[in-house]
Design a protein that fits this description.
It is a single chain. The protein has about 425 residues and is an alpha/beta fold. An eight-stranded mixed barrel has the order 8-9-11-12-13-14-15-16, surrounded by six helices. Strands 2-3-1-6-7 form a five-stranded mixed beta sheet, sandwiched between helices. The protein has a two-stranded antiparallel ribbon with strand order 4-5. Helix 8 runs parallel beside helix 9. The longest helix has 24 residues.
Length: about 425
C-alpha cells in the first residue's frame, strides 16, 4: 500500500503517475478481456521494473502510481524514463500488436517539509488534469505544490458532472435537399476551471465505465432540455443525437434506463438519435448489446452508425439493428471535391445506403467545396464547420433564427467540370 509508516523515514520522495492516453483507440482494437489483460500486463511490467519497496498502485483503470523514496530529482527522473519506455513497449494481445502511450507526471518533495503520499498523489492527479495537449505522452516533472491540495479540481468526469463543469454543445445537421436543419448532435465539453474548455479528446481516454454512464446520462438530460427549449422557441428541430460507447451498450438495463428518462420527460423516442460505433456489429457484440439496441430500435429511437467505413461488421449491424442512417467518416469527406479516390469511395457508400433504404450523412464537412460536391452527388445530410461549429445552447437559437430566415447564405452547389 502507498502511504505507510515507512513515510516517517523518507528524506525525499517522488510520486510518479503514469496515465494510459490511447485507451479509446485501444478499446476499439481489443475486446474487454484483452483490454483487461493489457492493463494487468502494464501493471506487472511497471512492478518488475522497480524495487520491491517501490510498489505500484492502480488508482483507476489505466492510471498507475509509484512511490520512489530517498532519491534526488535527477535519479527519480532516470527511473521514470526507464518505466516510461518499458511501459510503452509493444504488447502482443488477441493476435495483434498494440502500443500503449503513457503520460507521466513526477511530484518531487524533500524534507523537512515532506508532504504525505496521498497529498503528492493528489498533486499528481491535478497536474495531469492541467497538462497542455503538447505534453501528453511525455514525462513532466513538478515540485510538490501545497496550493493544489484541499478540495482541488475535479479529477474525473463524474466529479466534473457533479461540479456542473460538463456542458453540452450542439452541432447542426442539415438536409442537402431542402436546407433545413434535421437535428443537432450533442457534444460534451468540460469547462475546466484552470485548463479552459476541454474537448472530448482531452478527457475521454481516461474515463472509467462509471464515467461513461454518467456522461451519457448527463448529455441525455442536456439534450432533452435542448429539445424542449427549441420547441418553446417555435423551431422545428426533429432530433438530437448522443454518442453511446460500446461499454454502455453491454450493460444490462441500459436501454430501459434511457427509455425511462425519455418517458419521464415526455420526449418521444423518435426524437432521440443514438450514435453507435461501426464496430458494434452482431458478430463482435455480446447478448446485452443486442438486447439494448433491439429495445431502443423497437421503442422508436433512431440509430446512427458512426464513423462508417473505418470499422467492420457494418452490413450485419444495418440488417439486424435497424440502423436508419450511416455517418460517412470525415476521413472520406476531406478533399472529396478534388480527390477522385475520395469521390469513388463516397459514391459507393451512398449507393450502398440507397439500396439498403437508409440515409447517409457526411460528417466533418469543412469547406464550401466539399459541401457543394456532396449536395450535387445526392448526399442526404451534412454536418461540419462548413455549416456551423459546435455551439452552446443559447447560440443554437440564434443559428436557427438565421437559418429560418433564409438559406441563401448556405454554400451553393458548384458545377463540376
Amino acid at each position: 500500500m502507498l502511504g505507510t509508516p515507512q513515510e516517517s523515514g523518507d528524506q525525499s520522495r517522488t510520486v510518479l503517475l503514469l496515465r494510459l492516453e490511447n485507451t479509446e483507440l485501444l478499446g476499439r482494437q481489443l475486446d474487454k478481456t484483452a483490454m483487461s489483460h493489457l492493463l494487468v500486463q502494464l501493471s506487472m511490467t511497471l512492478g518488475r521494473a522497480v524495487r520491491p519497496y517501490d510498489p505500484v498502485q492502480v488508482l483507476a483503470p489505466g492510471l498507475f502510481a509509484l512511490v520512489l523514496r530517498n532519491r534526488n530529482d535527477r535519479d527519480a527522473m532516470q527511473v521514470a524514463r526507464r518505466l516510461h519506455q518499458q511501459g510503452q513497449a509493444p504488447v502482443a494481445l488477441a493476435g495483434q500488436s498494440v502500443t500503449p502511450i503513457l503520460t507521466g507526471v513526477l511530484i518531487h518533495a524533500e524534507a523537512p517539509d515532506l508532504p504525505t503520499v496521498p497529498s503528492q498523489i493528489e498533486n499528481g492527479r491535478q497536474r495531469l488534469q492541467m497538462l497542455e495537449e503538447r505534453k501528453l505522452g511525455q514525462l513532466n516533472p513538478y515540485p510538490h505544490d501545497p496550493r493544489l491540495g484541499g478540495a482541488g479540481l475535479a479529477a474525473t468526469v463524474s466529479e466534473a458532472i457533479e461540479a456542473g463543469q460538463i456542458q453540452a454543445w450542439f452541432q447542426p445537421q442539415l438536409c442537402c435537399h431542402t436546407g433545413r436543419i434535421t437535428g443537432f448532435e450533442a457534444l460534451a465539453r468540460w469547462a475546466h476551471p484552470q485548463r479552459g474548455l476541454l474537448l472530448p479528446g482531452a478527457f475521454m481516454p481516461q474515463m472509467s465505465g462509471a464515467d461513461h454512464i454518467n456522461l451519457t446520462m448527463c448529455m441525455l438530460a442536456r439534450s432533452m432540455a435542448a429539445l424542449k427549449e427549441w420547441d418553446r422557441a417555435g423551431y422545428d428541430v426533429p432530433t438530437v443525437s448522443i454518442n453511446i460507447a460500446n461499454s454502455e451498450l453491454s450493460d444490462r438495463g441500459f436501454a430501459d434506463c434511457l427509455l425511462w428518462e425519455l418517458d419521464r420527460h415526455d420526449i418521444p423516442p423518435a426524437r432521440l438519435v443514438v450514435e453507435v460505433l461501426e464496430s458494434v456489429g452482431p458478430v463482435t457484440c455480446n447478448a446485452e448489446t443486442r438486447t439494448n439496441l433491439g429495445k431502443l430500435a423497437k421503442a422508436g429511437c433512431r440509430i446512427d452508425l458512426d464513423d462508417f467505413g473505418t470499422g467492420y461488421a457494418s452490413l450485419d449491424a444495418i440488417r439486424q439493428f435497424g440502423i436508419h442512417r450511416i455517418k460517412i467518416d470525415r476521413s472520406f469527406v476531406t478533399a472529396c471535391d478534388i480527390d477522385e479516390g475520395q469521390q469513388r469511395m463516397i459514391l459507393a457508400i451512398m449507393a450502398l445506403a440507397e439500396r439498403l433504404g437508409i440515409a447517409a450523412l457526411a460528417e466533418g464537412v469543412e469547406t464550401r467545396e466539399e459541401y457543394s460536391f456532396l449536395a450535387q452527388m445526392g448526399c442526404d445530410e451534412v454536418q461540419g464547420y462548413a455549416i456551423a461549429k459546435p455551439m452552446p445552447l443559447p447560440r443554437t437559437l440564434e443559428f436557427l433564427a438565421a437559418n429560418g430566415k433564409s438559406t441563401a447564405s448556405l454554400p451553393g452547389i458548384a458545377r463540376l467540370g
